[in-house]
Backbone:
């Protein structure tokens, strides 16, 4: 066991990138062998996300704006959130299986490999449905970007990439922490479902909520950082709050905390043999 832990510590970033590339290629090959399932899954994801698009159309047909946010502002937020939510959908979907693995005892196999347990477990699954979500989100994002007249420059594109990656960290952190509760709670599936439902709030500006909920969505369950705060860089470039500029650091901090919490559960599982 001690030798295994020593080997884990010696693994560098390039090693994990190489391993993940190999795992991903094999996983995609296996999924592409069932092309009909691949096409239907992505088409279904696009259709489900279109329902949100239709909701906005109906809503803004009757109301020209919501607390100062017009139709294209909301579409921008919607597209931004879909892109930001794609990494947790594609790369971290195996968190949904964690509670079953822990309960059955099959999770123990991850503890005896000379590789980071979190990486090993998460890398086993790549959810192709997220690609359909990404495609629809990107189309919506570009459509709203053009209608809002946001300039296309190296600065704005770089900011978009940075804040989209930053926004992803928050939802990943939320779902990591929710999944890790299975090491302490038997019926942790409810926690996963509830936390996943909060992603719907990311599609709306936090400014429409009262102070209590805005505080909760900013600092306790930081769903406002998935789209609202980073979007302000583009929607209100002359009035960007400090929280937006600090979001990359806050996102990294939340992700780190969720990772440590996840690994704390692993150590409990490993040491107790539960």
Residues:
């Amino acid at each position: 066991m001690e030798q295994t832990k020593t080997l884990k510590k010696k693994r560098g970033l390039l090693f994990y990138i190489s391993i993940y590339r190999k795992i991903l290629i094999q996983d995609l090959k296996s999924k592409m062998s069932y092309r009909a399932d691949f096409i239907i899954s992505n088409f279904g994801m696009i259709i489900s996300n279109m329902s949100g698009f239709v909701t906005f159309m109906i809503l803004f047909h009757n109301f020209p704006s919501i607390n100062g946010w017009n139709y294209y502002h909301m579409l921008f937020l919607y597209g931004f959130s879909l892109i930001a939510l794609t990494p947790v959908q594609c790369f971290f979907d195996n968190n949904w299986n964690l509670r079953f693995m822990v309960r059955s005892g099959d999770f123990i196999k991850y503890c005896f490999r000379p590789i980071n347990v979190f990486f090993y477990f998460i890398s086993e699954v790549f959810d192709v449905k997220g690609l359909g979500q990404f495609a629809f989100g990107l189309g919506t994002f570009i459509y709203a970007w053009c209608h809002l007249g946001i300039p296309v420059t190296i600065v704005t594109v770089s900011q978009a990439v940075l804040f989209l990656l930053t926004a992803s960290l928050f939802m990943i952190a939320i779902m990591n922490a929710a999944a890790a509760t299975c090491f302490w709670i038997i019926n942790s599936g409810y926690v996963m479902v509830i936390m996943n439902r909060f992603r719907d709030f990311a599609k709306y500006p936090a400014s429409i909520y009262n102070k209590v909920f805005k505080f909760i969505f900013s600092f306790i369950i930081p769903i406002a950082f998935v789209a609202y705060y980073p979007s302000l860089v583009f929607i209100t470039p002359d009035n960007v709050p400090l929280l937006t500029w600090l979001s990359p650091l806050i996102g990294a901090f939340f992700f780190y905390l969720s990772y440590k919490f996840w690994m704390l559960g692993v150590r409990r599982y490993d040491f107790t043999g539960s």
